Amino acid sequence: MSAFETRIAILRNKARALWREAKSSLLAALFFALIVTTAALFAEWRGAVDANDTIEALREGRDVAVDANGRPEAILARVAFLAARSEVDRARALVEALDRSGSVEARARGHYLLANALLRKAFDHIERSQLEAANPFVNLAKREYRRALQLAPDYWDAKFNLDVAARLVRDFPDFERKSGDELSADPKKLWTDIPGKPKGLP
User: Fold this and answer.
1) Would you state the pLDDT for residue 63?
2) Most buried residue, 38, 52, 62, 76, by most Cβ within 10 Å?
3) Residue 111: is it exposed, middle or buried by C-beta count within 10 angstroms (0-12/13-18/19+)?
4) How far apart are CA 33 and CA 190, in angstroms?
């Protein structure tokens, strides 16, 4: 074998050795990436299962806490639970969390549910002739319905209930005033014009 052929053989052997080392490193990297991906997929699946369990529990009326940084669908279910029980302050905090991480649809739904809770409080005060106490709830409900409609302009239930709140302002003009004057409208006249109490769920 000539010197040239010997040199070629040496280079070939070195190349084979380098390839074996590189192949081992590549296989190790691929194996590690597979482990990381599998762990991430499992965590995502586990999170989805936990969120579904939480949503189901809330729908059944069980008071289950939800992390404000958790999955948006679980937060929305918690908002619905709290809004149905008129816990507007706690519901509002979660609606704000939805605004940071939820989809447009979830955010619109959250504002709508909060608005319904506020408007129900206004109706409760009106039925007891506590008109001044109803004032802030009417205006807050209108604001939340408008926020829902900014996010989802075709949200029919939000449009309908915003109209209900607007009719309250029409029948009780002092709702728009900041003075402490006594409101003089007759709350019984409301029911002849308003198409109904807030629609939708809850």
Assistant:
1) 87
2) 76
3) buried
4) 65
| Residue 118: C-alpha distances to residues 21, 122, 148 (Å) | 68, 6, 14
The DSSP secondary-structure symbol of 34 reads H
The phi and psi torsions of 115 (rounded to 5 degrees) equal -60, -40
CA separation for the pair 52, 43 (Å, rounded): 14
CATH topology classification for 65-171? 1.25.40
> pLDDT at position 61, please?
79
Q: What is the pLDDT of residue 15?
A: 66
The CA distance from 97 to 112, in Å, is: 15
Crossing angle of helices 88-101 and 104-127, rounded to 10°: 160
Q: What is the mean pLDDT of each successive set of 10 residues along the chain, which is 202 residues long? A: 64 67 65 61 54 80 86 92 94 94 92 96 89 89 95 95 85 54 41 42 40
What's the rounded Cα separation, in Å, for the pair 71 and 50?
Answer: 10
